[in-house]
Design a protein that fits this description.
The protein has 178 residues and is of the alpha+beta class. The chain has a 4-stranded antiparallel beta sheet with strand order 10-11-6-12, with helices on one face. A 3-stranded antiparallel beta sheet has the order 1-2-3, with helices on one face. The chain has a 3-stranded antiparallel beta sheet with strand order 7-8-9, with no helix packed on it. Helix content is 20%, strand content 38%. The chain has 2 helices and 12 strands.
């Protein structure tokens, strides 16, 4: 993978440290994978061609690419809240959600993650670590998963919720008693 300008990469054994304009990320990789910095690129090589090594090779390449992308542009997940009275409010760095419970739900952002409330029904989770951003967005969504009948709840932007038909009324109740 090519290293863009403004990004500093250090390889120390199995540990890779990537530093860029948005921050710094470090990760330790598997023993079977070798990382090396070669003329403006990060080279990822595997020990052999076993199935496990090939899988680890692809995973490592993707993780390195995500680290470089994270420190240069960052990652974001958009969430949409739908339902009567459901809304999000930002109090300092904390996110406060009203989701129909008897109490508001408060969420502290982990290190490196920020919340942005665009409207009371639109929320953005952003940061430099793709894994942490995705996990935080999933935790928020899990608080009130959209139901298939009214689609009330928290969903990812662009996510399609398959709707179900409600209960059918009693048709021909007198006919069943014959």
């Amino acid at each position: 993978m090519a290293i863009p300008s403004g990004v500093d990469v250090k390889v120390e054994g199995r540990t890779l440290t990537v530093k860029g304009p948005k921050g710094q990320l470090a990760r330790t990789f598997h023993d079977d994978i070798t990382l090396a910095r070669e003329d403006g690129r990060i080279a990822v090589t595997r020990a052999d061609d076993s199935k496990e090594s090939r899988a680890l090779h692809g995973l490592t390449r993707t993780l390195v690419a995500n680290m470089v992308t994270g420190v240069t542009t960052g990652f974001a997940k958009d969430l949409e809240i739908s339902g009567t009275g459901y809304r999000a409010v930002l109090q300092g760095k904390k996110l406060q959600l009203s989701l129909g419970f008897s109490h508001p739900v408060e969420i502290d952002p982990p290190a490196g993650v920020t919340f942005t409330v665009e409207t009371p029904q639109k929320l953005k989770v952003s940061g430099i670590d793709k894994e942490v951003v995705g996990e935080m967005a999933a935790k928020i969504r899990r608080l009130r998963v959209p139901d298939p009948y009214k689609a009330k709840g928290i969903k990812y932007a662009g996510e399609y919720i398959r709707r179900k038909a409600g209960k059918a009324g009693k048709v021909g109740a007198a006919a069943g008693k014959a």
